[in-house]
Write a structure and sequence with these properties.
Order of helices and strands: EHEEEHHE
CATH topology: Alpha-Beta Plaits
Radius of gyration: 13 Å
Distance between the termini: 5 Å
CATH class: Alpha Beta
Helix content: 40-55%
Number of strands: 5
Largest sheet: 5 strands, antiparallel
Structural class: alpha+beta
Strand content: 25-35%
Shape: globular
């Protein structure tokens, strides 16, 4: 199971640093390493899009640790997307998060 999200922003150079910092902090909190990947950015209509892939291990730790408590959504995938969005926002990021796939 791999969770894949597409992030979009109009300020990629600023946002990528915030996303990396937030994800590094989440890894530290969950005591895992190398549990996320950030894909190559591409531009369209003034927006920059890039993928964020989260490992099975990190997704399971988030689900079982109680971090999803209060995250809106009927399904785990939707709750995880909302959790990631709020987590990134807590670091000052203003990226938009879209769930691409959640198996």
């Amino acid at each position: 199971m791999i969770s894949l999200f597409q992030l979009s922003t109009r300020r990629y150079d600023d946002e990528i640093q915030l996303v990396k910092k937030a994800m590094d902090e989440l890894e530290e909190k969950c005591s895992v390493k190398s549990s996320y990947k950030i894909g190559q950015p591409f531009n369209r209509a003034g927006w920059t899009f890039f993928d964020l892939e989260i490992s099975t291990e990190l997704a399971q730790l988030i689900e079982t640790s109680g971090m999803l408590e209060g995250a809106l959504g009927y399904r785990i995938g939707e709750q995880l997307k909302n959790f990631i969005g709020h987590h990134l926002e807590s670091f000052g990021s203003q990226v938009r998060v879209k769930q691409i796939e959640y198996d």
